[in-house]
TrEMBL record:
It comes from Jiella pelagia. Residues 96-301 form the ABC transmembrane type-1 domain. The keyword Flavoprotein does not apply. Pfam families: BPD_transp_1, BPD_transp_1_N. This is ABC transporter permease.
Length: 315
């Protein structure tokens, strides 16, 4: 198992290296001159040359990349062009906690609703419950998240005033107020993934419930809930965990729109404002951090397989 884990970690490092090259290229290929953005409209050639050298832009591209990669690993991400703020603080200490909180709540809501509905659909196969679950899943996956967010704001926020429609309160500062502000954004972001989890859970469990060991468990007189949840659901954890890991990237992408719609100061809104303001170093850092999070989560998913299915353990 250690050899398998080492191989997967090595593959992950290669992927991270490729992503870092792509992220660095994003800044180099972007239109505009970062030196001009920082100096403004009035400057002399000496000031331009001095700042260009201070930023290391007079070095060969390979040297610039290696210096940038070393700075990224050590947390020295530089200063934003326009705001003149420390990028590490903006991304990691201010925006990242908001996005992680929204992602965790949305993912938790998707699992808490998607898995039970998928199980119900599989157990009640070819009944009205199965049809209702299929309609529910299809509606969730087909509904655009940004439109759902606007609809929830208009109905639940404007018409009924039941929930706040913008802003973020850290749950670690005020737990209940934080959850109150996360209700609508979490529903908006999780709806698509609820539908995905329902469909994957149903398809996997329908196949498992036809296996001989399920028939044997029923013949032994075990309760129905135990047959389904212990012998059935336990054996479909791999596809569920896989789809959760793969869809994390979609959740992070969806957070861009969701945070913008609900004015949440997370990485999504930060990237949107950075693109509009041509803060390319800020965009670069946000994209790189998001990619690292997605890759590391999928590494953890790969490493969890031998624990979820003993058949995958080396003998």
């Amino acid at each position: 198992m250690l050899a398998q884990a080492a191989g997967k970690i090595a593959q992950t490092l290669v992927v991270l290296l490729i992503v870092s090259i792509a992220s660095f290229s994003l800044l180099k290929l972007a239109p505009g001159d970062p030196v001009l953005l920082m100096l403004g409209s009035e400057f002399d050639q000496a000031s331009y040359d001095s700042l260009n050298k201070a930023l290391g832009l007079d070095q060969p591209v390979v040297v610039q990349y290696l210096e940038w990669l070393g700075s990224f690993v050590t947390g020295d991400w530089g200063i934003s062009y326009v705001g003149r703020a420390d990028i590490f603080n903006l991304v990691v200490r201010e925006a990242l906690p908001v996005t992680l909180t929204l992602t965790a709540c949305s993912l938790g809501l998707a699992i808490l609703i998607g898995v039970p509905v998928g199980v119900l659909s599989a157990v009640k196969k070819d009944t009205i419950w199965d049809a209702a679950a299929a309609v529910f899943a299809l509606t969730g996956t087909a509904f655009p998240s940004f439109f759902l967010g606007i609809l929830l704001i208009w109905i639940m926020g404007v018409q009924f005033g039941a929930f706040p429609v913008m802003g973020f309160v850290p749950p670690w500062e005020d737990f209940w107020a934080g959850l109150y502000h996360l209700v609508l954004p979490s529903i908006t972001l999780s709806t698509f993934f609820i539908g995905m989890i329902v469909r994957v859970t149903r398809a996997a469990l329908v196949e498992v419930l036809d296996q001989p060991y399920i028939t044997a468990a029923k013949a032994r007189g075990e309760p129905g809930w135990r047959v389904v949840w212990v012998h059935g659901v336990r054996n479909i954890m791999m596809p569920i965990v896989t789809v959760i890991g793969l869809q994390l990237g979609g959740i992070l992408q969806g957070a861009v729109l969701t945070e913008t719609v609900f004015s949440m100061p997370g990485i999504g809104q930060m990237l949107t404002n950075a693109v509009l303001g041509r803060e390319y170093m800020l965009v670069q850092a946000g994209v790189m951090l998001t990619a690292v999070l997605f890759i590391l989560v999928n590494l953890l998913v790969d490493l969890s397989y031998p624990f979820l299915d003993p058949r995958l353990r080396p003998r």
